Structure formats: structure tokens, C-alpha cells
Amino acid sequence: MKKIKKYLLMLMLPIFILVGCKDSDSDQTELDYSFPIVEIKNENKIEISKIVFEEYLKSTYENYEDYKSAENKKINILKDYKFNDIKIIKELNDKAFEVEINFDLQSIDGYATVFETGNGVISKDNWVKDKYLILDIEEVGANKYTIKNMYTG
Questions:
Q1: In angstroms, rounded to a whole number, what is the distance separating the alpha carbons of residues 145 and 30?
Q2: 107-131: per-residue pLDDT in tens?
Q3: What is the CATH number of the domain that holds 70?
Q4: 3-class SS at 146?
Q5: Contact predicate 15/8, CB 8 Å
């Protein structure tokens, strides 16, 4: 019986160490977020939204896994982008707010359809115009922000 308890303890200890014990979301680390966390020393929510979304665009499309090549190498498919309008929709709580963004993206040749996903219209010179997203932006630390949720409406 002693050997079984010892064996169970040896099995369970690494699991507790790897999983950890959390009692709330306030203990989240940067590894818990799927979007980039950006340090911003600005209190303007429009500017915060713009900077956080720019980091998302760069991290997603400047390191895009090239499905067209046999090696699946990472390439930059984001040639340019333009914000048409950014509006705060509402405050979600004292640390988060909801914002709508209307924007255009330009891809390198052959990748405009990647940007068309969800909404938008492919235009000349690989531009996808009239993209629209709603983002929940959250402050996750002192002057640190990230996208908590992203959807098309």
C-alpha cells in the first residue's frame, strides 16, 4: 500500500507542477493569451486599439506560413494597410473596451484571398478593402494591452 501511495504521488506531482493551480484569471501570464501583448504608454483608447491591432497584423501576416510552398516556410504577405475608421463601441469593464475597426489590407501577389476571409472586397493592386472587425481590447498589466476577442459582428 505504501508503494502505491508513493507511486501515485510521483505521478501526480509533475502534473500539479505543469498544470499549476489557478484560482482566477487575474493570475494569467503572457503565455495565456493568443494575441500579442503590447506595452503602450498612452491612455487614448483609439490609439491603443490602433497599436494593438497593428501588432496583431504584423505578428500574423509578416510570419505567415506559406501554404503554397512545399517547405511551408514563413513569409511576409502584408504589403501595406490603412485604417479607415476606429470607433469605441462601449466599455466592457474598468480594464476592457470594445472597438470597431474598418480597414484595408494589401497583400503581396497571390495572397489577397487570405485577407478577404470573413469580409472585405478584393480590389486592384492586391488591396482588400472595407474589412470590418470588432475587437475587445483588455489591459492585462500596467500599460499592457491585448486583444481578448475578435469577431466580424
A1: 11
A2: 999 999 988 888 999 999 999 999 9
A3: 3.10.450
A4: strand
A5: no
**CA-CA distance, 149 to 105, in Å (whole number)?**
20
Q: Where are the beta strands (DSSP E) in 10-143?
A: 38-39, 64-65, 74-75, 78-93, 96-107, 121-122, 127-141
Q: Is the pLDDT of residue 85 over 90?
A: yes
Assigned domain for 25 exists: no
Q: Pull the grid cell for residue 12.
A: 501526480
Separation CA 94–CA 47 (nearest Å):
17
- Phi, psi (degrees; rounded to nearest 5) at 28: -65, 150
Could you identify the residue written with the cell 466580424? Answer: 152
71 vs 114: which has the higher pLDDT: 114
